[in-house]
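Chain and backbone:
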Amino acid sequence: MEFTEITIHSLASPSLSNQMEKITGWLFFLFFTWSLFPSIAHAQLITVRGEVNLTTSTMILPHEHLLVDFIGAGEVGEHRYDRDAAFEMILPHLHRLRETGVGVLVECTPALLGRDVQLLHELSRAADIHILTNTGYYAAANFHFLPWNTHQRSAADLADEWIAEWRDGIDGTGIRPGFVKIGVDAAPLPDVSLEIIRAAAITHRETGLVIACHAPDGAAIVEAVGIFEEESIPLDALIWVHANMDPNTERHLRLARMGVWVEYDGISPQTLELHRDLVLLMRNEGLLHRVLLSHDAGWYSVGEPGGGEFRFFGDLQESLIPMLLEAGLASEEVHSLVRDNPLQAFTPRERE
């Protein structure tokens, strides 16, 4: 730990090159120490290149984006962009990401928001990085990204569609989703959002896939918890996405104690102190094992010239982890946050 303390102190240097040397130094130190930790047994992720047994101590980013199209469900499609141009724009960022020690990226763009599993497959091979894609529907943003007939469909009908993608692959590609991604607006939730949550719970029962639920406040997650309990689904199958947006930290603690994964994403230079304090809160309450960390960053933005401005997903590795170590977290606690926790969350469950 003496090495770590020297590294963190040196990060105050005004020289960018010196900072990068120190970042590289503590990353090497972390990977060396993490290699001594036992791996989670039988941890098998479903990636765009198939099922993978992760045996290394690589970092995992549980919520990022590579391509997004905000045009809406009625107009979205691969006809709106050049896949080769998107590939060329995104690939250097994935090469850079590998250099920061990340080996797994969970791509959270849902269907009808620009999900392109063929592009993800090509990027995964070219960058030698594992990528997970998803099934599910995004009912947030006032249903702008839902198929027109979703309001007329039952939870069981929706679940059948998502289970078929898990069983047979997405859009005839054979590429299977590694998790379920849904989105809802703030509580109280309308019927269609409740049906989508129930469909996700039914899908989990059949597939074991974890459910990442976009929710701007914890009250919506409390409603989701009620549906999970009605469907007898364990709460460790639920990730509360964007928990950092809800200032009610008592709700963070309560849901984490119930077994929900609490995801603090949106990490950026402007949020580092907030994210540090949230992590320390959960640690002090003995709940670090329920926390996920990511950036919710990227991406090639369809419709913008050249794909727009790509926000790199590096602030966790390059800034927040040093801050957490300086604040007193042990190396093994950081390892849990950026490797063990997301690996456990995204490993499909075997339910009886």
About this structure: Residues 299 and 309 are 8 Å apart (CA to CA). The longest strand covers residues 59-64. The domain at 37-346 is CATH 3.20.20.140 (TIM Barrel).
